[in-house]
């Protein structure tokens, strides 16, 4: 896996797939820079069209892929090993789980863990359902657990099968569709799929960077009282983070694995620290346990709720956005998970992913989210009044952290953890994008460092443009919703193709 392409051979590079999406992204960046107000207005209109008109489309695919994940894990497909029949896993469960978890969530998990309960608490839909205490802690668990992780895990086994069992040399989204598309994979349909995949990959990057990096800027402002402006600080942070993930990616999978483990230690260290010194341990654990039970009890209803009368637009603003957000990340993350899952069975990848990925995610939202919600619902501090007045989520998070003992230390740990999360996630994205830039990569071969370096730089163009144009949270989310629309359909083709090809493999067709 760590054998680099020897020399930089231009003939091996798929320049069409590399250049066209980049030109589109650069064009969008220029528009955001030059016409921020007009661009934001158009994004808002497009978001309404996709989420309002086709919202059920995202919901159906979400529930369908979750069901498919359990079918694949517990059927005869679950025994297929991603590699040779008796091959051992390439990485230990902890190293594998660390890379999978950190590459799949980026720093968004910390931003949303602290703040998402407040966004729900101020929604009219929560008032319709009941109290903040009953429901504000439920939706973060729902939106970040089983359905979105099923996207990653089902596609991961499809890509892992393609790479480690079928030994395909074309490491592209379209190649996973070959069992369904056949010869058309090498024609226009395959090219369109790969263009959509690279564009979605860049859009997901932009969404992630644009959402959470301002929190790091707010922390720096609060700690050091810097007055150059949050936008300037945010852009500096993006550039510094780019340097970190570029360095680790160029070091190869050993560098990525080391960073992922460091990120996990920082992450769980932060959770333990907040639980111990925050003074809300009892409330945090009991509310988290209750919220998880309520989510399981109402899972089907939550998964199919579309607000047909549009009384609150909650489904359009949140559930549909989240499924779209995870779908665009499915261009890179499952590919990376499949790559590092050599030697594991389909069942081990899916169930192991649920245990490590979903388990860690839920713990984060329970500990960090319920700490702030506990102070609010117990009447100790009123975060919601100020948030409703200002709409400043980053200020809200700073206020929450400032209620803890040794708040500056907590802020430093949060910032370091976010940098580690970002670096690990964008290692995976840049690696996947680099693979897309090649016409063929043999088994165990990795992209040339110049191509990896190119993508490391390109990934920050649109995020900087979105931050510079001061796009609203809604407009940043729109980038993912638009990109996910065609990707969702391709995901279905990939899953169907895997099932078809896996059946042939189990019937003795080893080609």
TrEMBL record:
Keywords of this entry: Cell membrane, Membrane, Transmembrane, Transmembrane helix, Transport
Domain of life of the source: Bacteria
Pfam family, one: BCCT
GO cellular component, as recorded: plasma membrane
Transmembrane segments: 12-35, 55-74, 94-114, 141-163, 195-220, 226-250, 262-285, 320-337, 349-368, 409-429, 450-469, 481-499
Location in the cell: Cell membrane
Cross-referenced InterPro entries: BCCT_transptr
Protein name as catalogued: Betaine/carnitine transporter, BCCT family
Lineage: Bacteria, Bacillati, Bacillota, Bacilli, Lactobacillales
Native organism: Trichococcus ilyis
Membrane topology per record: Multi-pass membrane protein
Family statement: Belongs to the BCCT transporter (TC 2.A.15) family.
One term of GO molecular function: transmembrane transporter activity
């Amino acid at each position: 896996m760590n054998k680099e392409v020897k020399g930089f051979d231009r003939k091996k590079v798929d320049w069409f797939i590399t250049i066209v999406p980049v030109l589109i992204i650069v064009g969008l960046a220029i528009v955001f820079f030059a016409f921020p107000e007009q661009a934001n207005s158009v994004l808002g209109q497009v978001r309404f069209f996709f989420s309002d008109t086709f919202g059920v489309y995202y919901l159906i695919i979400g529930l369908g892929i979750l069901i498919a994940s359990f079918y694949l894990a517990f059927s005869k497909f679950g025994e297929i090993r991603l590699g040779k029949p008796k091959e051992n896993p390439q990485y230990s469960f902890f190293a594998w789980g660390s890379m999978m978890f950190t590459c799949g969530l980026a720093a968004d998990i910390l931003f949303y863990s602290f703040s998402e309960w407040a966004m729900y608490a101020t929604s009219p839909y929560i008032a319709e359902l009941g109290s903040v205490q009953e429901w504000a802690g439920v939706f973060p668990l729902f939106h970040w657990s089983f359905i979105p992780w099923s996207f990653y895990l089902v596609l991961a086994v499809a890509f892992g099968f393609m790479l480690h069992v079928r030994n395909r040399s074309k490491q592209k989204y379209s190649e996973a569709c070959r069992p369904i598309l056949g010869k058309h994979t090498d024609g226009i349909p395959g090219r369109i799929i790969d263009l959509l995949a690279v564009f979605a990959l860049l859009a997901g990057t932009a969404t992630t960077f644009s959402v959470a990096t301002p929190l790091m800027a707010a922390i720096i402002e609060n700690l050091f009282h810097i007055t150059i402006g949050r936008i300037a600080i945010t852009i500096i942070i993006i550039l510094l983070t780019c340097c970190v993930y570029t360095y680790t990616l160029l070091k190869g999978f050993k560098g990525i694995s080391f960073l992922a483990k460091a990120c996990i230690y920082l992450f769980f260290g932060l959770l333990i620290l907040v639980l111990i010194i925050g003074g809300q341990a009892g409330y945090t654990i009991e509310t988290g346990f209750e919220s998880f039970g309520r989510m399981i009890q109402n899972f089907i209803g939550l998964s199919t709720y579309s607000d047909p009368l549009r009384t609150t637009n909650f489904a359009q603003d949140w559930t549909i956005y989240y499924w779209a957000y995870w779908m665009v990340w499915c261009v890179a993350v499952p590919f990376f998970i499949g790559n590092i899952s050599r030697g594991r069975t389909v069942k081990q990848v899916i169930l192991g992913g649920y245990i490590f990925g979903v388990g860690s995610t839920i713990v984060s939202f329970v500990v960090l989210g319920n700490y702030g919600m506990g102070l609010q619902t117990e009447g100790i501090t009123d975060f919601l009044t100020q948030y409703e007045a200002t709409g400043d989520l980053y200020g809200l998070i700073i206020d929450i952290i400032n209620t803890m003992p040794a708040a500056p230390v907590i802020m430093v740990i949060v910032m370091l953890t976010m940098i580690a999360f970002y670096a690990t996630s964008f290692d995976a994205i840049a690696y996947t994008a680099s693979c897309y830039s090649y016409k063929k990569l043999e088994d165990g071969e990795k992209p040339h460092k110049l191509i990896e370096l190119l993508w490391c730089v390109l990934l920050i163009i649109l995020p900087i443009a979105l931050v510079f144009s001061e796009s609203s949270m809604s407009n940043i989310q729109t980038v993912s919703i638009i990109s996910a629309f065609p990707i969702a359909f391709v995901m279905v083709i990939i899953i169907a193709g895997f099932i078809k090809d896996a059946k042939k493999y189990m019937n003795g067709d080893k080609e």
